[in-house]
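Input chain follows. Return C-alpha coordinates only.
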Amino acid sequence: MTYADHHRDPRNCLAHYVGIPLLFLAVIMPFALWRTEIAGLTFTAAPPMTAIGIIGWMIIDRFVGIAMIIAVTPFVALAQWIALRFGAAVVWGVSASLLAIGTICLVVGHAAFEGRRPALADNLFQAFIGPMFIVSKALVALGFRPDLAAPLNRSGADLDADPQPPGYSRNHRSDRR
Protein backbone atom coordinates (compact mmCIF):
# COMPACT_ATOMS: atom_id res chain seq x y z
CA MET A 1 0.00 0.00 0.00
CA THR A 2 1.34 3.40 -0.93
CA TYR A 3 0.75 6.87 0.43
CA ALA A 4 -1.30 7.67 -2.70
CA ASP A 5 -3.72 4.84 -1.85
CA HIS A 6 -4.90 6.92 1.13
CA HIS A 7 -5.35 10.11 -0.90
CA ARG A 8 -7.81 9.48 -3.74
CA ASP A 9 -10.52 12.03 -2.94
CA PRO A 10 -9.69 15.52 -4.29
CA ARG A 11 -11.16 17.15 -1.16
CA ASN A 12 -8.82 15.11 1.02
CA CYS A 13 -5.92 16.16 -1.20
CA LEU A 14 -7.00 19.79 -0.81
CA ALA A 15 -7.04 19.33 2.98
CA HIS A 16 -3.47 18.06 2.66
CA TYR A 17 -2.42 21.04 0.52
CA VAL A 18 -3.42 23.19 3.50
CA GLY A 19 -2.55 20.92 6.43
CA ILE A 20 0.88 19.66 5.41
CA PRO A 21 2.45 23.10 4.89
CA LEU A 22 1.02 24.21 8.24
CA LEU A 23 2.51 21.13 9.92
CA PHE A 24 5.86 21.67 8.19
CA LEU A 25 6.00 25.27 9.44
CA ALA A 26 4.94 24.17 12.93
CA VAL A 27 7.77 21.64 13.07
CA ILE A 28 10.53 23.78 11.56
CA MET A 29 9.76 26.99 13.47
CA PRO A 30 11.21 25.89 16.85
CA PHE A 31 14.50 25.04 15.12
CA ALA A 32 14.72 28.70 14.14
CA LEU A 33 15.02 29.50 17.85
CA TRP A 34 18.41 27.77 17.96
CA ARG A 35 20.71 30.42 16.61
CA THR A 36 24.31 31.49 16.55
CA GLU A 37 26.16 34.61 15.43
CA ILE A 38 29.14 34.25 13.12
CA ALA A 39 30.90 37.32 11.75
CA GLY A 40 27.88 39.46 12.51
CA LEU A 41 25.46 37.12 10.72
CA THR A 42 22.73 35.17 12.49
CA PHE A 43 22.32 31.50 11.59
CA THR A 44 19.59 29.20 12.88
CA ALA A 45 19.17 25.45 12.99
CA ALA A 46 16.12 25.59 10.68
CA PRO A 47 18.03 25.38 7.36
CA PRO A 48 20.32 22.49 8.37
CA MET A 49 17.38 20.53 9.82
CA THR A 50 15.44 21.12 6.60
CA ALA A 51 18.50 20.07 4.58
CA ILE A 52 18.35 16.65 6.24
CA GLY A 53 14.82 16.18 4.90
CA ILE A 54 15.78 17.49 1.48
CA ILE A 55 18.62 14.98 1.25
CA GLY A 56 16.12 12.21 2.01
CA TRP A 57 13.67 13.52 -0.56
CA MET A 58 16.45 13.74 -3.16
CA ILE A 59 17.45 10.15 -2.46
CA ILE A 60 13.88 9.07 -3.23
CA ASP A 61 13.56 11.26 -6.36
CA ARG A 62 16.17 13.85 -7.33
CA PHE A 63 13.84 16.08 -9.39
CA VAL A 64 11.13 16.12 -6.73
CA GLY A 65 13.82 16.73 -4.10
CA ILE A 66 14.98 19.82 -5.98
CA ALA A 67 11.38 21.00 -6.24
CA MET A 68 11.10 20.46 -2.48
CA ILE A 69 13.91 22.99 -1.98
CA ILE A 70 11.84 25.56 -3.86
CA ALA A 71 8.67 24.60 -1.98
CA VAL A 72 10.07 24.68 1.56
CA THR A 73 12.47 27.63 1.36
CA PRO A 74 9.73 30.25 1.93
CA PHE A 75 8.54 28.32 5.00
CA VAL A 76 12.06 28.15 6.43
CA ALA A 77 12.50 31.89 5.79
CA LEU A 78 9.14 32.63 7.45
CA ALA A 79 10.03 30.44 10.44
CA GLN A 80 13.31 32.27 10.89
CA TRP A 81 11.69 35.68 10.52
CA ILE A 82 9.04 34.86 13.15
CA ALA A 83 11.63 33.44 15.55
CA LEU A 84 14.05 36.34 15.17
CA ARG A 85 11.33 39.00 15.27
CA PHE A 86 9.02 37.72 18.00
CA GLY A 87 10.95 35.24 20.15
CA ALA A 88 10.30 31.93 21.84
CA ALA A 89 6.86 32.55 23.37
CA VAL A 90 5.33 33.50 20.02
CA VAL A 91 7.14 30.69 18.17
CA TRP A 92 5.85 28.03 20.55
CA GLY A 93 2.32 29.49 20.53
CA VAL A 94 2.19 29.75 16.74
CA SER A 95 3.73 26.29 16.34
CA ALA A 96 1.16 24.73 18.66
CA SER A 97 -1.67 26.50 16.85
CA LEU A 98 -0.40 25.48 13.41
CA LEU A 99 0.08 21.91 14.62
CA ALA A 100 -3.54 21.80 15.82
CA ILE A 101 -4.98 23.39 12.66
CA GLY A 102 -2.85 21.25 10.32
CA THR A 103 -3.80 18.08 12.17
CA ILE A 104 -7.49 19.00 12.06
CA CYS A 105 -7.23 19.55 8.28
CA LEU A 106 -5.73 16.10 7.77
CA VAL A 107 -8.10 14.31 10.14
CA VAL A 108 -11.15 15.92 8.55
CA GLY A 109 -9.78 15.15 5.08
CA HIS A 110 -9.41 11.48 5.89
CA ALA A 111 -12.52 11.01 8.02
CA ALA A 112 -15.00 13.07 6.01
CA PHE A 113 -13.75 12.63 2.45
CA GLU A 114 -11.54 9.57 2.21
CA GLY A 115 -13.41 7.39 4.67
CA ARG A 116 -10.26 5.72 5.95
CA ARG A 117 -7.55 6.32 8.47
CA PRO A 118 -4.40 8.21 7.44
CA ALA A 119 -1.40 6.35 6.01
CA LEU A 120 0.50 7.73 8.99
CA ALA A 121 -1.52 5.40 11.24
CA ASP A 122 0.15 2.43 9.53
CA ASN A 123 3.64 3.85 9.12
CA LEU A 124 5.13 6.92 10.82
CA PHE A 125 7.50 7.39 7.85
CA GLN A 126 4.46 8.65 5.90
CA ALA A 127 4.90 12.01 7.69
CA PHE A 128 8.10 12.37 5.66
CA ILE A 129 6.33 11.36 2.43
CA GLY A 130 3.40 13.79 2.85
CA PRO A 131 5.22 16.96 1.75
CA MET A 132 6.81 15.10 -1.15
CA PHE A 133 3.39 13.80 -2.21
CA ILE A 134 1.80 17.25 -2.48
CA VAL A 135 4.82 18.66 -4.34
CA SER A 136 4.74 15.65 -6.70
CA LYS A 137 1.02 16.24 -7.38
CA ALA A 138 1.80 19.91 -8.11
CA LEU A 139 4.61 18.91 -10.48
CA VAL A 140 2.23 16.60 -12.34
CA ALA A 141 -0.42 19.34 -12.53
CA LEU A 142 2.18 21.77 -13.92
CA GLY A 143 3.25 19.20 -16.53
CA PHE A 144 6.78 18.69 -15.17
CA ARG A 145 6.41 15.02 -14.13
CA PRO A 146 3.77 13.27 -16.26
CA ASP A 147 5.46 9.97 -15.36
CA LEU A 148 4.15 10.37 -11.80
CA ALA A 149 0.52 10.92 -12.85
CA ALA A 150 -0.42 7.24 -13.03
CA PRO A 151 0.93 6.19 -9.62
CA LEU A 152 -0.44 9.32 -7.93
CA ASN A 153 -3.90 9.16 -9.48
CA ARG A 154 -4.76 5.47 -9.83
CA SER A 155 -8.30 4.51 -8.88
CA GLY A 156 -9.18 1.76 -6.44
CA ALA A 157 -10.10 -0.49 -9.39
CA ASP A 158 -6.64 0.06 -10.86
CA LEU A 159 -5.12 -0.87 -7.53
CA ASP A 160 -7.10 -4.11 -7.35
CA ALA A 161 -5.90 -5.05 -10.85
CA ASP A 162 -2.22 -4.59 -9.96
CA PRO A 163 -0.22 -7.79 -9.55
CA GLN A 164 1.24 -8.13 -6.07
CA PRO A 165 4.29 -9.95 -4.79
CA PRO A 166 3.82 -13.55 -3.62
CA GLY A 167 2.31 -13.72 -0.16
CA TYR A 168 0.86 -10.20 -0.32
CA SER A 169 -2.81 -9.81 0.53
CA ARG A 170 -4.89 -6.64 0.56
CA ASN A 171 -7.43 -8.40 2.77
CA HIS A 172 -5.29 -7.70 5.83
CA ARG A 173 -6.24 -4.01 5.75
CA SER A 174 -8.61 -3.00 8.49
CA ASP A 175 -9.55 0.17 6.65
CA ARG A 176 -10.82 -1.50 3.48
CA ARG A 177 -13.86 0.24 1.99
